[in-house]
Design goal:
This protein is of the alpha/beta class. The chain contains five helices and five strands; from the N terminus they run E-H-H-E-H-H-E-E-H-E.
Length: about 140
């Protein structure tokens, strides 16, 4: 919340949005199956791009389904994983996470808070820090 005399500084929002040409992200496994994207996401260019784009962000804005998918996969720090994947996993574990949800009652990952209100005011309350977003 801003008080009298404070000015708003521009924020940087980095968006990571999965969208296919036909507007569907459903794969052969059903709703929210992103297996179709895996061959593209595992390229050297995609991995290094993800690590470079997200690393300056101090806050991750996530939809509930993205959060649940990430929380089930990324917190593990695998020494055998690709170095860019380890960088992204450490960033995602350490960064402040705001999860927009109407159904979750408790976060199960460190540095996470749940937002059940409109995303704009919730993100603005994070101050002037940089935010990375992922839609779901």
């Amino acid at each position: 919340m801003m008080t009298t005399g404070q000015s708003r500084r521009p924020r940087t929002v980095i968006a990571d949005i999965a969208l296919s040409l036909d507007g569907r992200v459903t794969g052969p496994g059903g709703e929210y199956d992103a297996s179709w994207a895996v061959p593209h996401a595992l390229t050297r260019g995609a991995r290094s791009h993800t690590a470079a784009v997200t690393s300056p962000a101090t806050t991750a804005l996530l939809g509930r389904k993205s959060y649940e998918g990430y929380a089930g996969y990324w917190p593990a720090d695998d020494d055998n994983a690709d170095p860019d994947d380890r960088t992204f996993a450490r960033w995602l574990t350490d960064v402040d996470k705001i999860v927009f949800t109407g159904t979750r009652k408790q976060p199960d990952w460190d540095n996470t808070r749940l937002a059940t209100t409109d995303p704009a005011p919730s993100s603005n309350s994070s101050g002037t820090r940089k935010a990375a977003t992922s839609s779901s």
